[in-house]
C-alpha cells in the first residue's frame, strides 16, 4: 500500500521556515520542529530527511516565496532609482515592524551562522547574492538610462555596494537598530550616486 501522509508537508515546512528563520539552525533542535508542527520525528525524517536536509528545504522555500518575488519586482521595475529606494524602504519596514520584526533575513542569518558550513547551503546563498546584485544592477541600469545617476557612476559596482548594504540592514535590524537610523544610512548611500536635482 502507498504511504499516506497524515499531515500537510507544505504547512510543516512553512513552520520550519519560521523556526529556522527566527532562531537559526544551530539553536533549533528537531524536537522544536516536532513540537511546533505536531508532526512526529519519524514522519519528518521520512518526508524531508535529517535536520540538515530539512533546513535546506526551508531555506529554498524562503528564497522562493519571500526573496525571489521581491527581487523580480525590483529587476522589472521601470522607475529606476525610486524602485531602489522603495526596495530599501520595504526592507527596513519588514525587518523593524510587523510579524517578523527583529528576525532579520533568513539568508543573512545563514551567512553569519554555522549553516554556511554546508556546501549546498553556501551554493544557495551564492545564488541569492547573485540574484540580489542582478536585480539592483537592472534597476540602476534603468536609472542610468533615465538620467537619474550622477556622472561616472557604474551600475555594476554600485549594485555590489548596495547588495552589501542590504545585508547590513538585515543584520543590524536583528540586533535592534532603529528604523530611522537605517533609513538615514540608506539615504547616505544613495545620495552620492544620484544625479543632482535640477536647479
Helix and strand arrangement:
Elements: H1 9-23, H2 30-37, H3 41-48, H4 51-76, H5 81-96, H6 106-112, H7 119-145, H8 155-174, H9 179-190
Helix pairs in contact: 1-2, 1-4, 4-7, 5-8, 5-9, 7-8, 8-9
Structure description:
This protein has a domain of 137 residues: Tetracycline Repressor, domain 2. The protein has 199 residues and is mostly helical. The protein is elongated. It is built from 9 helices and no strands. The mean pLDDT is 95.
How many beta-strand elements? 0
CATH C-level category of the domain at 57-193:
Mainly Alpha
Tell me the span between the first and last alpha carbons.
77 Å
Q: Do you know the CATH architecture of the domain at 57-193?
A: Orthogonal Bundle
Overall residue-averaged pLDDT value: 95
Structural class of the helix and strand makeup?
mainly alpha
Proportion of β residues?
under 5%
- Give the H and E element order: HHHHHHHHH
* Shape summary: elongated
> Tally the helices: what do you get?
9
> How would you characterize the largest beta sheet?
none
Uncertain parts: none
Percent helix, as a range, is 55-70%
Summarize the structure.
It is built from 9 helices and no strands. The protein is an all-alpha fold.
